[in-house]
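User: Reviewer 2 asked us to show a designed sequence for the structure in our supplementary figure. I'm pasting the structure tokens here. Could you produce the per-position amino acids so we can include them in the response letter?
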């Protein structure tokens, strides 16, 4: 659905030349929710803005729904852009118009008749869950409701692709989750391809199928969310993945417990279907070991569960080795982090 080939973007400003995006090649499938994650200044906004040519690449081609956008004249580009909706961190809605009139706005521009507009706006209001708020003004809406208006507007002309530029960054965690759930629902219901940029791994974990990690203008790592979570290669990716599984207080409590426990500290990593507790029960039953659970967290991704469990295992070394071989034989990774 989306193909980026050899994309570079260089800005020339008073303070000099900035290579914001460097030689990016990406392929995003139809119906996929694809996330781009990176810290501030990594080049994410510039990259997503090139997907609808709000920003023109210095080099390379952008193909969306079969259209090579970089080769189109302004008129053809305008019609190709109808296939691409976009939502923003600060909602981009019209403050002097009601919810209904905000959503109708892109339909007016496309020359849709009044009667058809009303029908379409009603459908969209229902789709994004804004029933009862049709006549409210943006200033009377919560942040989550404003973003729902943004989403309805972006979907008004039935695009094939929805671009989300930090769409949940201005929202509190609970509202963030409700907007992410709405995006997942829309993706499933409409088969819409969604590309989002974020600096929060939680967003990637919760709704994306695929992810690209950006650093200094480069895509440094890319793959399915489970694969990248399971085997992060680059230091920056490891940092992002650890944000989810190892909050600071957990690290401290492990250090504290390590000082007062003997045995081997082992981290089990579960992926796709396997979960922690049956395995621990199994270990205690089969082997003469003591297993002391330190911390565990199972997260759910779009493609299945992913989780880590840290345990102290006490016993004789040969039995521990045998027990760990058994764990690995169950398709669970077992990494010895510390032994006394
Ligand atoms: N119009 C512009 N002119 C000059 N430099 C720019 C312009 N737009 C972006 N840049 C620079 O390009 C680099 C990448 O910026 P970009 O906004 O794409 O990063 P980002 O990952 O989206 O970060 P943030 O989340 O802070 O927006 C930065 O160094 C930024 O200063």
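Assistant: Here is a per-position design you can include in the supplement:
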């Amino acid at each position: 659905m989306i193909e980026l080939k050899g994309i570079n973007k260089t800005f020339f400003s008073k303070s000099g030349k900035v290579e914001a995006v460097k030689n990016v090649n990406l392929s995003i499938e139809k119906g996929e929710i694809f996330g781009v994650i990176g810290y501030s200044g990594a080049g994410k906004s510039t990259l997503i803005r090139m997907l609808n040519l709000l920003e023109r690449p210095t080099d390379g081609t952008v193909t969306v729904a079969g259209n090579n956008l970089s080769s189109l004249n302004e008129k053809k580009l305008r019609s190709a852009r109808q296939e691409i909706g976009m939502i923003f961190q600060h909602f981009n809605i019209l403050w002097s118009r009601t919810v209904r009139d905000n959503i109708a706005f892109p339909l007016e521009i496309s020359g849709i008749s009044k009667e058809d507009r009303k029908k379409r706006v009603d459908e969209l209001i229902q789709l994004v869950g804004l029933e009862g708020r049709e006549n409210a003004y943006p200033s009377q809406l919560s942040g989550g409701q404003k973003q729902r208006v943004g989403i309805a507007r972006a979907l008004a002309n039935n695009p094939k692709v929805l671009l989300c530029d930090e769409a949940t960054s201005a929202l509190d965690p609970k509202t963030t989750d409700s907007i992410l759930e709405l995006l997942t629902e829309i993706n499933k219901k409409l088969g819409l391809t969604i590309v989002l940029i974020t600096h929060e791994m939680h967003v990637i974990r919760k709704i994306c199928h695929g992810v690209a990690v950006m650093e200094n203008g480069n895509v440094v790592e890319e793959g399915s969310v489970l694969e990248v979570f399971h085997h992060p290669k680059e230091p920056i990716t490891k940092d992002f993945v650890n944000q989810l599984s190892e909050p600071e207080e957990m690290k401290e409590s492990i250090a504290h417990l390590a000082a007062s426990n003997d045995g081997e500290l082992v981290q089990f990593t579960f992926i796709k279907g396997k979960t922690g507790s049956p395995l621990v029960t199994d270990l205690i039953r089969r082997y003469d070991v003591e297993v002391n659970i330190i911390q565990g967290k199972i997260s759910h991704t779009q493609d299945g569960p992913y989780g880590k469990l840290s345990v102290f295992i006490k016993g004789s070394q040969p039995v521990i080795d045998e027990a760990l071989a058994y764990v690995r034989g169950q398709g669970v990774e077992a990494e010895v982090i510390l032994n006394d």
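For the response letter, you might also mention the following. The mean pLDDT is 89. The chain has two domains: 2-243, 246-339.
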